[in-house]
Each structure stands twice: as structure tokens, then as C-alpha cells.
Design a protein that fits this description.
Blueprint (H helix, E strand, L loop, with lengths): L7 H7 L4 E2 L5 E6 L5 E5 L8 E3 L1 H9 L6 H11 L5 H17 L4 E2 L9 E5 L3 E5 L5 H10 L4 E4 L11 H9 L3 E8 L2 E10 L7 E9 L4 H11 L10 E7 L7 H9 L3 E10 L2 E9 L9
Parallel strand pairs: 11-12
Antiparallel strand pairs: 1-5, 2-3, 3-4, 6-7, 7-9, 8-11, 9-10, 10-11, 12-14, 13-14
Helix pairs in contact: 3-4
Length: 292
């Protein structure tokens, strides 16, 4: 049985939300064996077929814009009386997460899987979780601050962060979150957290950190104190991967990581282009850290 480990924030927010499914969200639909159907998303045409089982199809049928998630769980539970209610609840939320990621359902009020966070701290500074409405501002800042890149994940390339479609995709697929530090409303630094598409994973990775002088520390403070409250899954740790050959040049950045509670967990041998990778990790003390 798959156990979808929701954070307390998601568990609270999602139950009163009303998902909406419309046939127009399928650009393609075909009956398959054993009650499965294969479909394609109208909104994400580059994706290959998705295979939906009977349970997922039953959930979709109840996403009419009137039923809340709580009501859908109750309806599906009545259809499968021999299965524990919590198992049904986990399965419904897991399915809604996947269906949202592939834009097969919409939400009447707001998508509960799209997080929002804005925290005032350190005078006029704010630590904020950015969303699709901030994409152009994200790109403008990144293009204007290429000389201020403090960190880039070893598995990432910088150029895609210039691309609006790339940023939109990772936001809607819930594979990368963008955080910013603002001062007097102006972005001074951006950091991202990358999530694996494996819903069992409880580890996220620092993707990009780009900051003007004096704002790297504020970004790291925001990440360790508040990012746990935005995760839909119960994250255990944040991983920062640095090629061992670059560690001397990154000594100041590593010192800043350690000041903010990151520890050197291990060295992965031959992990990247034949070279070793040093893994620095921050462990969330409890679910959600300082959830907001």
C-alpha cells in the first residue's frame, strides 16, 4: 500500500478544496485492458500517454467542482467498504496530486498543491515562495545577476533558467520551488529546491542560489527556517552537492552552509563526471520546520 505522507499544512488545506475535471483536459483517450484507459493532457502535449486505473477514473468522475476532497474520500470509501478509510484518503490525495501535476484537473478556488509563503524578517526583507505569476520577474532577475551565482546543482544547467516554459513546467510539475528574498519589494536573491518525481522520497536538493552581495545568508536563513512549511511531502533533509574539486573555491559558501546547520554527510565516489561529490545536508528537526 502506498502511504502518501501529507504535511499537516496540506492535510488541513486540501480537504475543503473542490477539484474540477472536464473532458476537454484530455486531448486523447483510449480504452485499455483490465479497465485501464490511456490519456494525454491537452495542457501538456509533450507528455506521453498516462495510464489511469479504475480507482483514478472514479475519482475523476467525482471532481465536478461541487464535491470537496473530503466528500470525494467519503464517496470512494463507500464504494470500497472493505478498505480502511485512511488508505482510501491516502490514495485519493496521491491521485489528485498526480492529476494536478499533469493538469488533468483544475481547482474551483485554488490548487492546494501550489504552495504560498511570505515571511517578513530582518527589517524590510521578506522571504517569499514564488509562483507562476512571478516567472517573468524570476527570469529578469536571473539574467541580470549571472555574475552573482553562488551555487548551481551538479546535475543542472544554468541556461534553462532563462526559459519561461522550463520554469512553468517545473512549477506545475512540483519538481522545483523558487524562493526569493526581497527588500522593499525588490528581489535581491533567488534559491530553488528540487524534488524528485518519486513520491516516496523525503529528500530535496538545493538547485540554484543566486544572490546580490549580502543576501546569500538571508536566503539560506529563509530556506532552513521556512521551506519545510511549503512541502506537500514530509521532507527529512535538504542536500547540497558540490564537486570535491570545487570545494576549496567554494570555501566561503561551505562555511555559510555550516553556519546555517548543514553538515558534511558523506562523499559520493565518482558521482559526477568521474569525480567525487561532497554532500552537505540540513536535517529538518520536525515536520514542516517552521511551517507558515
Amino acid at each position: 500500500m502506498y502511504d502518501f505522507k501529507m504535511t499537516a499544512r496540506l492535510r488541513t488545506n486540501i480537504m475543503k478544496q473542490r477539484p474540477i475535471f472536464e473532458q476537454k483536459n484530455f486531448s486523447f483517450r483510449r480504452e485499455e485492458k483490465e479497465g485501464y484507459i490511456s490519456v494525454r493532457s491537452t495542457n501538456l502535449p509533450r507528455l506521453q500517454e498516462l495510464f489511469l486505473n479504475r480507482t483514478t477514473q472514479n475519482i475523476l468522475k467525482k471532481c465536478n467542482g461541487s464535491n470537496t476532497v473530503e466528500q470525494i474520500i467519503r464517496i470512494i470509501s463507500d464504494m470500497y467498504p472493505d478498505i480502511q478509510r485512511q488508505v482510501i484518503a491516502n490514495d485519493v490525495v496521491k491521485n489528485l496530486s498526480v492529476l494536478s501535476r499533469f493538469q488533468l484537473i483544475e481547482w474551483k478556488e485554488r490548487n492546494p498543491f501550489m504552495k504560498k509563503l511570505c515571511v517578513a524578517f530582518e527589517g524590510n526583507k521578506e522571504f517569499e515562495l514564488l509562483d507562476e505569476g512571478d516567472i517573468r520577474e524570476i527570469i529578469t532577475f536571473i539574467k541580470a545577476n549571472t555574475k552573482n551565482v553562488r551555487f548551481l546543482n551538479v546535475m543542472s544547467r544554468f541556461e534553462p533558467y532563462y526559459d519561461e516554459l522550463f520554469i512553468r513546467d517545473v512549477l506545475f510539475n512540483f519538481t522545483e520551488d523558487f524562493f526569493a528574498v526581497r527588500e522593499n519589494g525588490e528581489i535581491k536573491g533567488i534559491a530553488t529546491l528540487k524534488y524528485t518525481t518519486n513520491l516516496d522520497s523525503t529528500v530535496c536538493s538545493l538547485g540554484l542560489l543566486i544572490a546580490q552581495a549580502g543576501y546569500e545568508e538571508s536566503l539560506l536563513t529563509g530556506i532552513v527556517e521556512y521551506s519545510g512549511g511549503t512541502c506537500n511531502r514530509a521532507m527529512v533533509k535538504i542536500k547540497v552537492q558540490l564537486p570535491e574539486k570545487d570545494c576549496d573555491a567554494k570555501a566561503e559558501f561551505i562555511e555559510n552552509l555550516q553556519t546555517h546547520g548543514f553538515i558534511k554527510e558523506n562523499i559520493s565516489l565518482g558521482e559526477f563526471q568521474g569525480g567525487n561529490v561532497c554532500n552537505y545536508c540540513f536535517f529538518y528537526e520536525k515536520e514542516g520546520s517552521k511551517a507558515c
